[in-house]
Design a protein that fits this description.
Layout: E1 4-7, E2 10-13, H1 46-54, E3 65-67, H2 77-89, E4 94-98, H3 102-106, H4 111-114, E5 120-124, H5 130-137, H6 145-159, E6 162-168, H7 175-185, E7 188-192
Parallel strand pairs: 2-3, 3-4, 4-5, 5-6, 6-7
Antiparallel strand pairs: 1-2
Helix pairs in contact: 1-2
Bound molecules: iron/sulfur cluster (SF4).
């Protein structure tokens, strides 16, 4: 079970393969994926994630540990919180990559639960407006998903030192408008590169 994997010296944590979005550009739907087998036969509990971290090559000398995927880590805020608390005790820097839908999906504000242990959060903005977001990301949260994402960024701003909005360079996404939106909200901004081959889409 590939729970912790190294990429560019960072340690990435794969705690779920579930996601509430079905983005057209999702790496899970590419024919080659990330080049690391990340499909989980079952979801690990926090103790198993911590054990995988302790057993990872180079532990604990990483510039950053990233909750990432395949899948949306904040579908499991309890596991993220327990593992992030452990990592913080080891003096490691922690980032979460998220689709920003957690509060909408859980029906409560989960940010205060994990924020005390997290240094950075990268939130996938993915579009300059709600209609384009819905078309590209097909969120389970429906029409209100983009607004919920923006509200989630505000909760993160209050409690997490570094908040970055990201987009994928994909047809129909106005990168400049996304950049302006991130600027106007006072967040960092990054364009993510597409990974994987989209020649054999599973869905
Ligand atoms: S939010 Fe991420 S994991 Fe979820 S469908 Fe989109 S690209 Fe895939």
């Amino acid at each position: 079970m590939n729970i912790a994997y190294l990429l560019s010296e960072r340690l990435y944590l794969n705690i779920t393969n579930r996601c509430t979005n079905r983005c057209l550009f999702c790496i899970r739907d590419t024919s080659d994926g990330l080049g690391v087998e990340l499909w989980l036969p079952r979801e690990p509990d926090a103790a198993e994630v911590i054990e995988a971290i302790r057993s990872a090559p180079g532990y604990p000398n990483y510039p950053e540990v990233v909750f990432c995927g395949y899948g949306e880590p904040l579908l499991r805020p309890d596991v993220v919180t327990d593992v992030a608390r452990f990592l913080k005790e080891q003096g490691l820097k922690i980032r979460i990559n998220t689709n920003g839908q957690a509060n909408l999906i859980h029906g409560r504000n989960v940010v205060p639960e994990f924020a005390p242990y997290v240094d950075s959060i990268s939130i996938s903005l993915n579009a300059h407006d709600g209609p384009v977001y819905n078309e590209l990301c097909r969120p389970a949260g429906g029409e209100g998903a983009y607004q919920a994402l923006l509200e989630f960024t505000e909760e993160c701003r209050r409690l997490i030192p570094n908040v970055v909005l990201t987009v994928v360079n994909w047809p129909g996404v106005d990168l400049e408008q996304c950049r302006l939106k991130a600027d106007s909200l006072g967040f960092g901004f990054r364009v993510r590169s597409l990974t994987g081959k989209f020649d054999s889409l599973a869905r």
